[in-house]
């Protein structure tokens, strides 16, 4: 049974819908494997050898992968760089062969949740400015963060280039000369969190992304560790 997988999982991984949706498509007799209609999602086949058809169209097998990484500092969010280590360099060869790329960027000195995939469509949906996917950050701030800052962030702050941000939801965890906060923003301008704090006269000294939409960083991943998303997490991202 080596190299075989359930047919519903293969189709779901290839972007034909959630397992539940695939179940419907199978029931409707729209899937053929090697010329025969298949109605059972649990049938095991080798996707690299079997000829799969959906609605009479042959589907070319391409493995789509989704990886969650706890990005460490000192690594850049790119696929390739001549000089500096990238997040893709951290992946093992069996993932690299699928050409994953990071979905959006975290600064070199930012830690936390980074998604890597070769699913261009999903990446585009998560990054499209119009979608306003919320991103949650945890940060250490040099300077006392106050209720006044909460109000300012709620109204949107004006960055040094004159851009007024969308409202951000600021939560103070600790308020003294080295404050701790959580911030939810709905856009992803370059250095956005750092620039929002600069706009209120404070400095981010440590930054970590905790969540993208409803997908939260698995805190059991140590810095630099990664794992594939489980089906529930993928559904969270796809059904938003
Ligand atoms: N905002 C920043 O300033 N840096 C990041 O890496 C992410 C958001």
Detail the topology: elements first, then pairings.
Blueprint: E1 5-6, H1 7-13, H2 19-27, E2 31-33, E3 36-37, E4 44-45, E5 52-54, E6 57-58, E7 66-71, H3 93-96, E8 101-102, E9 110-117, H4 120-127, E10 135-142, H5 147-155, E11 169-174, E12 178-185, H6 192-199, E13 203-212, E14 215-216, E15 226-228, H7 231-238
Parallel strand pairs: 9-13
Antiparallel strand pairs: 1-4, 2-3, 2-5, 5-6, 7-9, 7-15, 8-9, 10-12, 10-13, 11-12, 13-14
Helix pairs in contact: 1-2
This protein binds uracil.
Uracil is lined by residues 106-107, 110, 191-194, 207.
Word description of this protein:
The protein has 240 residues and is an alpha+beta fold. It folds into three domains: 5-58, Structural Genomics Hypothetical 15.5 Kd Protein In mrcA-pckA Intergenic Region, Chain A, CATH 3.10.290.10; 66-129 and 215-238, Alpha-Beta Plaits, CATH 3.30.70.580; 134-212, 2-Layer Sandwich (Alpha-Beta Plaits), CATH 3.30.70.1560. It is 22% helix and 28% strand. It has seven helices and 15 strands. It has helices at 7-13, 19-27, 93-96, 120-127, 147-155, 192-199, 231-238; strands spanning 5-6, 31-33, 36-37, 44-45, 52-54, 57-58, 66-71, 101-102, 110-117, 135-142, 169-174, 178-185, 203-212, 215-216, 226-228. The strands form three sheets. Strands 7, 8, 9, 10, 11, 12, 13, 14 and 15 form a nine-stranded mixed beta sheet that branches. Strand 8 (101-102) and strand 9 form a beta hairpin. Helix 1 packs across helix 2. The chain is elongated. 26% of the residues are buried. The mean pLDDT is 93. Uracil is lined by residues 106-107, 110, 191-194, 207.
């Amino acid at each position: 049974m080596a190299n075989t997988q359930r047919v519903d999982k293969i189709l779901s991984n290839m972007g034909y819908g959630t397992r539940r949706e695939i179940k419907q498509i199978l029931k409707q007799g729209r899937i053929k494997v090697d010329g025969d209609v298949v109605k059972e999602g649990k049938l095991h086949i080798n996707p690299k050898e079997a000829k799969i058809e959906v609605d009479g169209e042959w589907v070319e097998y391409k493995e789509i992968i989704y990886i969650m990484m706890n990005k460490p500092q000192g690594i850049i969010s790119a696929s390739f760089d001549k000089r500096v280590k990238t997040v893709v360099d951290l992946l093992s060869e069996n993932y690299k062969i699928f050409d994953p790329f990071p979905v959006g960027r975290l600064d070199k000195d930012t830690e936390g949740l980074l998604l890597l995939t070769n699913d261009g469509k999903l990446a585009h949906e998560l990054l499209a400015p119009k979608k306003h996917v919320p991103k949650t950050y945890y940060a250490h701030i040099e300077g006392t963060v106050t209720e006044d800052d909460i109000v300012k962030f709620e109204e949107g702050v004006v960055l040094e280039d004159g851009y007024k941000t969308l409202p951000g939801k600021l939560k103070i965890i600790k308020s003294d000369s080295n404050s701790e906060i959580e911030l939810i923003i709905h856009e992803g301008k370059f250095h956005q969190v750092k620039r929002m704090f600069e706009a209120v006269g404070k400095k981010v000294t440590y930054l970590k992304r905790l969540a993208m939409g409803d997908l939260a960083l698995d805190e059991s991943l140590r810095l630099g560790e990664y794992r594939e998303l489980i089906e529930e997490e993928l559904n969270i991202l796809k059904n938003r």
